[in-house]
TrEMBL record, chains A, B:
Species name: Isoptericola chiayiensis
Keywords, alphabetical: FAD, Flavoprotein, Oxidoreductase, Redox-active center
InterPro entries (UniProt xref): FAD-bd_OxRdtase, FAD/NAD-bd_sf, FAD/NAD-binding_dom, FAD/NAD-linked_Rdtase_dimer_sf, Pyr_nucl-diS_OxRdtase_dimer, Rhodanese-like_dom, Rhodanese-like_dom_sf
Location of the region described as Disordered in the Swiss-Prot/TrEMBL record: 235-254
Cofactor(s) the protein requires to work: FAD
Official protein name in the record: FAD-dependent oxidoreductase
Family: Belongs to the class-III pyridine nucleotide-disulfide oxidoreductase family.
Phylogenetic placement of the source organism: Bacteria, Bacillati, Actinomycetota, Actinomycetes, Micrococcales
PROSITE patterns given in the database record: RHODANESE_3
Rhodanese domain boundaries: 486-574
Length: 577, 577
């Protein structure tokens, strides 16, 4: 191109600046202008909760780059306080309003990049506009919340929503000394995860003194005479195992508070996209091709406002995350300047720290795998991150594979240590189309300071592979329930020690410790469907092998053992089933 | 098979017991006998250094399983104190000596599994048999060392060899309060790693008060009147930057000590393999097929005594590690009982903690990649594991890819935190044949508590890909040296701030800060080969882009920046070049 390319970017948090910087790397000549209606650019939205808690002392460290930095380093013209209010795709112009002066002007572009991001969803509740009710999306929000807490001497907080931001905020405000109540409409925190993993997060929250109300809906926010929020009215529904103070059976209750943070989700900022007439995908975000092109010529969309697609299924997917925003920004910046980068899809890999627990996931959950038409094989693998003699602590990995092809589809993990590593390894394996059987072969770094000789990833692969091949069939707690409820006679064998059995056991199980199983197998009926179990699954699998070797035709091991079964039972009673 | 299969396993540390346990899972009927000449079985050899330091309080926790446990759980007959002294592969019998009674008997087998492991190499030095001179291979060794330290009130130790065991022992004895000297023949610790990574380990050791003598050879061990080691004579050679007390230029010196631990490597225990007439591979370990079969019918070899092969090159490889031993044992146990598991090769992935530094590697080093016939592209990537605002600390990742295919070949990493995760992700990627360009696309778990928005793995892939494609050519410090030494005129441009430049700079470089580079590019000659640099590489790459955009034909960025260059310079002077 002989004429100088002009790129206009709208929005400058993660994707917009990534696109601009990459475009500059691709073309030293291009004119690059970024319009941002806010004052802060290129900030770390994910770091905001840590400013609330004081782990991040000043807000400045979360906004390390300003317009001058971009001008100097990249020769990029970033104009904050400028809102793009209109677009004419035929004339290739945008209408821009200078928020300081109130003046409006027109700018032209060769290529337009929409990086308009998302806004927090705020349900239209009575009182939601009161002082002391916040969302947490940008540095101004964080500053306002912290000032509110400090100026008002706030001691209680209600967080509405138990997703990433809600939980990080709950943690940080608790560590700051506030009494925190979290209100979540779904049956458990982390609604994108399966219930039998997220329940561990619920436990962690409660053990740290957070009052977690699930299946609970905020109906209104009450205000004081000074116009500030003073209480939240909560319709409690069936409230599973909530903390003290929650009147059981109450249809509605009042939670007094000094502030409310609404963190129930975000939605794409589509005004400009609509003005440009670009197609919006089925997820509700802007549909784009793998380079970031929208349906309108010379209009691109990147970051949280753009739709992505699932790496496994290829279906449209929208999971707004900083990691993906950075990627799609860079990809479009490359494509804008002649490069050939293309987005390869997402696994929705994500992680959040909730007190001492890392909570992470990648790929499909059991529920989504089934919804996508797979026949999911599931394992619950409970393993320490390191040997106990060097302080190893247990994590749970729930992994899902496709029974037909053996392909690994997804994993969720929770635990105090080493969870991020296992999820990233599994995400990498899934990306390359790994089958469950491939995991055992991975040559991972072993030293007792970092891992066990066989890593939790290896064990997960071995268990999945055994279940798929039928050599070590697994049955989940819910499936066992379902089969028994359906009238099937299942012989359930507890192969643990008498001591373990005394603590808790699966309903209607017989007790034959593993060491006696070879000798006492004839007490069982080899023709009956049989389920073996232990505490976590390993000894149950050994028992399963013994019985299979003794000619039992149908022996499954209880996935995740009694430990997982008892959690299932608790969840079942909470649901009133 | 109608007759009962009889499997005899010789050796019971990691691979032998893995093979036996997996064989039992595969066949409930087989008779499985394990002979072990030692008293301890199935112990964690990798945990032994932590017993020396007291982090592991009792030796029992490293030997959690005994013969009774295997009998009860698996119906496996483990006979400790029994040495297999001969084998007749025609008759399928072994000769066994009961070490307690001195009696010898013959046992027959259908399948024989050699899991005889390795023994420490002990160089034939004068005084090496003295009291107070140890190797560290099994729990008895660890117990003997700890008793020696406690009984003698030992305050000084000399470790011979700076590999995994040597360094872990050095760390643990230092933490116990001993003054430790490490003597290493090679130019740096961790001899399997490249010098420009291992030098960071050398620094860590020295900063913790360990006296590290490199290019140094122990010539003799001197003893006291009571027959105990009292000093080590060291031929110092050219001694790069060693600690105080090492007379510079001394050909030989004496290091007084209260004990000596010899950790210069291990060699396979081949007596039985030789008796069986099985083929030994070029690595010196027993040659096996991917299931573990040796060249002799019905004789298998697993664990450290068996040769493996390189996953990337397919060449025979022998890297004795607990992780691989467990794998090959399990694989043979499966194959022995009708399974189809096959070993897929190793990357030599390994990790060691040295005080606050994790030191890890996977795949080919730069040196080995070149030796294997690849044209290696190398990056030195210095990145924090997390954002600085949450306490992120820098790690170095040195990664190697093949210029022709783009395939990732290997990585080495050192840093205080998050190194194990990145190496495991890279090992997984290499296993699936990842190209450098694939790394950027990985959907890894981001939260500021665990990673940066673009992970160090992403940056590594981006830098490698840029270097391979030529969009962001890299030059290493040594290559720059080589070119200049060869008389080539290279224009070296320092794009850092004046403050950074004042501290140290690359020889004969001109200084134009990045912010001024666009305006001042005409001070440089666009026809000359040009190298840009900054502190670590990122800003240098930005400068490189500016100059390329200005029409400079040949611009490379200095890999790892001035930080890596200055280390190179120090190494160069230490080598007297």
């Amino acid at each position: 191109m002989t004429e100088r390319l002009k790129i206009v970017v709208v929005g400058s948090v993660a994707a917009g600046t990534s696109a601009a910087a990459k475009a500059r790397r691709g073309s030293e000549d291009a004119e690059i202008v970024v319009y941002e209606r806010d004052t802060d650019i290129s900030y770390s939205g994910c770091g905001l909760p840590y400013y609330l808690g004081g782990r991040v002392e000043t807000i400045d460290v979360l906004t390390p780059r300003d317009a001058a930095w971009f001008a100097k380093r990249y020769g990029i013209d970033v104009r904050t306080g400028h809102e793009v209010t209109g677009v004419d795709t035929a004339a290739r112009t945008v209408t821009v309003r200078d928020l300081a002066s109130g003046e409006t002007f027109t700018d032209d572009y060769d290529e337009l990049v929409l990086a308009t991001g998302v806004s927090p969803v705020v349900p239209p509740l009575p009182g939601v506009d009161a002082d002391g009710v916040f969302t947490l999306r940008n540095p101004s929000d964080a500053t306002a919340i912290r000032e509110w807490i400090e100026n008002r001497g706030a001691r209680r907080a209600v967080i509405v929503g138990a997703g990433y931001i809600g939980l990080e905020t709950a943690e940080q405000l608790t560590e700051r000394g506030l009494d925190v109540t979290v209100v979540e409409m779904e049956a458990h925190s982390m609604p994108r995860m399966d219930a039998d993993v997220a329940d561990r997060v619920d436990d962690e929250l409660r053990s740290r003194g957070v009052e977690l109300l699930t299946r609970a809906r905020v109906t209104s926010i009450e205000t004081s005479d000074d116009g500030a929020a003073r209480a939240v009215r909560v319709e409690a529904g069936a409230e599973p195992g909530s903390g003290p103070g929650s009147g059981s059976g109450d249809a509605e209750r009042t939670v007094e508070t000094d502030l409310v943070v609404v963190a129930v989700g975000v939605r794409p900022n589509l005004d400009l996209a609509r003005a440009a007439g670009v197609r919006v995908g089925e997820s509700g975000a802007i549909a784009v091709d793998p380079a970031g092109r929208t349906s309108a010529d010379h209009v691109w969309a990147v970051g949280d406002v753009a739709e992505s697609f699932d790496l496994i299924t290829g279906d449209p997917a929208w999971v707004p995350l900083g990691s993906t925003a950075n990627k799609t920004g860079r990809i479009a910046g490359d494509a804008l300047t002649g490069g050939d980068l293309e987005h390869r899809g997402i696994l929705g890999t994500s992680i959040v720290r909730v007190f001492d627990l890392a909570v992470a996931q990648t790929g499909l959950t059991e529920d989504r795998a089934r919804a996508a038409g797979f026949d999911p094989v599931v394992v619950h693998n409970i393993k320490p991150d390191r040997p106990a003699y060097l302080g190893g602590q247990e994590m749970l990995i729930k992994a899902v594979a496709d029974r037909r092809t053996g392909r690994l589809l997804g994993a969720q993990a929770v635990g105090p240590s080493g969870v991020d590593k296992r999820i990233d390894v599994l995400a990498t394996a899934i990306t390359f189309g790994a089958k469950a059987e491939d995991l055992f072969h991975l040559d991972l770094a072993y030293a007792p300071t970092y891992a066990t000789t066989k890593d939790p990833v290896h064990y997960t692969g071995m268990a999945l592979d055994g279940a798929i091949s039928g050599r070590a069939a697994l049955v989940s707690a819910s499936e066992l329930d379902r089969r028994r409820d359906g009238g099937e006679q299942v012989q359930v064998v507890d192969v643990r020690s008498a001591k373990d059995r005394a603590k808790s056991a699966v309903d209607d199980s017989v007790h034959i410790p593993l060491a006696e199983l070879r000798a006492r197998a004839d007490e069982l009926d080899p023709a009956l469907p049989t389920v073996t179990y232990c505490n976590k699954g390993v000894t149950g699998n050994a028992g399963q092998n013994v019985l299979r070797g003794r000619g039992f035709a149908d022996v499954a091991n209880l996935s995740g053992g009694n430990k997982t079964y008892q959690r299932h039972v608790r969840g079942r009673s909470a649901e009133g089933r």
